């Protein structure tokens, strides 16, 4: 049938947008708006309602929780433009991604690059369906910033390794099904003696002790390994390649953490709107306090510049084959901006910004305080800001290592 000259021809992208809209209309109930049950929640998994479970399964079946991962492993197989359309339409519908956590953020992309075909087929689809939780076994009591000092030892026993040692700060270790772990297979070399292993958290000899924080929460654990048998098929890459693979995973982690983490939980509302509510407006309708107004404007400009830079870096990194050391710049700047926003929010709210519990405080105020406090961790985890600055100095600026 002939189309009118004024009609815009339907493009493939328009068709895809239509497909997304139909899918969302059929699968995302409006009652779930704002009821994000993300797998990455710091407080631990909350009980999924049947509605939330149905939404996770629908997204998992489409592969749209990991839109750009290959279709053959359960991903969406979308190109960048399609993924953007998906994100736009989900935002329009108020829909959230029910599939997340360390499997999506860090482990999946790393395994897709370094894993064997059998490992990809085994581990990627359950991540894409949101069925499996992964935790990260990197840090040890004497191996944080100096990660290559890790001592957890995996002894070669023919068809398996026997693992002994201790990890610490294992986020979500008590809820995880599996752990991607850096272990030592050679005591004579530092970085070159490290190997990347996949471990079952319910294997005999794995013991998890949640670390209780002053807030009463236990978002991370100590993890002990005593004579844990790990089949050789669970080694990613070669023996001694763990440092290279482990660093790659950190680049994915740092890129993902650059959003500032929970310091942005109040990010749906602009700082100016928060300020207008608590500080009031002048006769021109602007934030009444000129000094505060200038600081908010500076933050908004810095944030916008950061977002544009992040978009440019992501586009460039796609062109050159993925994440790189530039992730250290994104993490350093993004987390600093996240902390600054949280500080400004608390300052704007005055005494109302310091509530811990009680009826005198709104939900947003209480959430804001927790976000402000948790924001402190963002410049530590995934490698501290000082360590990122070292990476930037050495690997990006090419400055000499004087150590
Ligand atoms: C909330 C949270 C969650 C975490 N989750 C996990 C997890 O799931 N899995 C995991 O393996 N780890 C996790 N970690 C651990 C995290 O990776 C480490 O805390 C981090 O790498 C710093 O190591 P550290 O705590 O041992 O501090 P240290 O390495 O002892 O550092 C102490 C201080 O010295 C500074 N410093 C150290 N070396 C240098 C240097 N060469 N130059 C300049 N300054 C330096 C650091 O910047 C820091 O300020 C988590 C941490 C936090 C806070």
Automatic annotation (TrEMBL):
* Protein family according to the UniProt entry: Belongs to the acyl-CoA dehydrogenase family.
List each copy of the Acyl-CoA oxidase/dehydrogenase middle domain by range: 135-228
Q: Which residues form the Acyl-CoA dehydrogenase/oxidase N-terminal domain?
A: 10-131
Q: Which SUPFAM superfamilies match?
A: Acyl-CoA dehydrogenase C-terminal domain-like (SSF47203), Acyl-CoA dehydrogenase NM domain-like (SSF56645)
- Ranges for region Disordered: 28-49
Q: Which residues form a coiled coil?
A: none
Entry keyword Secreted: no
Requisite cofactors: FAD
Name of the protein described by the UniProt record: Acyl-CoA dehydrogenase
PANTHER family (alphabetical):
ACYL-COA DEHYDROGENASE (PTHR43292), ACYL-COA DEHYDROGENASE FADE29 (PTHR43292:SF3)
The protein's organism comes out as Sphingomonas turrisvirgatae
Q: Name one Pfam family in it.
A: Acyl-CoA_dh_N
Q: Name one GO cellular component term.
A: plasma membrane
Q: Which residues form the Acyl-CoA dehydrogenase/oxidase C-terminal domain?
A: 240-397
Q: Name one GO molecular function term.
A: flavin adenine dinucleotide binding
Give the keywords, sorted: FAD, Flavoprotein, Oxidoreductase
């Amino acid at each position: 049938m002939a189309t009118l000259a004024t009609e815009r021809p339907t493009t493939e992208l328009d068709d895809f947008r239509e497909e997304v809209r139909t899918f969302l209309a059929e699968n995302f109930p409006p009652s779930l708006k704002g009821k994000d049950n993300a797998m990455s929640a710091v407080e631990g998994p909350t009980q999924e309602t049947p509605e939330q479970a149905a939404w996770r399964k629908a997204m998992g079946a489409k592969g749209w929780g990991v839109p750009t991962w290959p279709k053959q492993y359960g991903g969406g197989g979308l190109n960048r433009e399609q993924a953007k359309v998906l994100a736009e339409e989900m935002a329009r519908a108020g829909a959230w991604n029910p599939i997340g956590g360390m499997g999506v953020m860090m482990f999946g992309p790393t395994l897709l690059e370094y894993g064997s075909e059998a490992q990809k087929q085994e581990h990627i689809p359950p991540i894409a369906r949101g069925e499996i939780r992964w935790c990260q076994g990197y840090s040890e009591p004497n191996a944080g910033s100096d990660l290559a000092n890790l001592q957890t030892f995996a002894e070669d026993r023919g068809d398996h390794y026997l693992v002994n040692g201790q990890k610490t700060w294992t986020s979500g270790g008590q809820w995880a099904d599996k752990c991607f772990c850096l272990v030592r297979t050679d005591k004579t070399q530092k970085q070159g003696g490290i190997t990347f292993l996949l471990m079952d958290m319910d294997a005999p000899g794995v013991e998890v002790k949640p670390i209780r924080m002053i807030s009463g929460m236990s978002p991370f654990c100590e993890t002990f390994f005593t004579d844990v048998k790990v089949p050789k098929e669970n080694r990613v890459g070669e023996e001694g390649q763990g440092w290279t693979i482990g660093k790659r995973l950190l680049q994915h982690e740092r890129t993902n953490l650059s959003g500032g983490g929970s310091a942005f939980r109040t990010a749906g509302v602009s700082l100016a709107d928060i300020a207008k509510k608590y500080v009031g407006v002048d006769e021109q309708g602007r934030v009444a306090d000129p000094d505060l107004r200038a600081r908010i404007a500076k933050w908004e400009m810095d944030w916008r510049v950061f977002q544009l830079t992040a978009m440019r870096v992501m586009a460039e990194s796609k062109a050159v084959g993925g994440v790189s050391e530039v992730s250290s710049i994104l993490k350093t700047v993004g987390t600093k901006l996240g902390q600054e926003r949280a500080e400004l929010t608390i300052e704007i709210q005055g005494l109302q910004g310091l509530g811990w519990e009680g009826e005198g405080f709104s939900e947003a105020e209480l959430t804001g305080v927790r976000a402000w406090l948790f924001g402190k961790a963002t410049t530590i985890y995934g490698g501290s800001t000082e360590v990122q600055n070292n990476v930037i100095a050495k690997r990006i600026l090419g400055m000499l290592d004087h150590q």
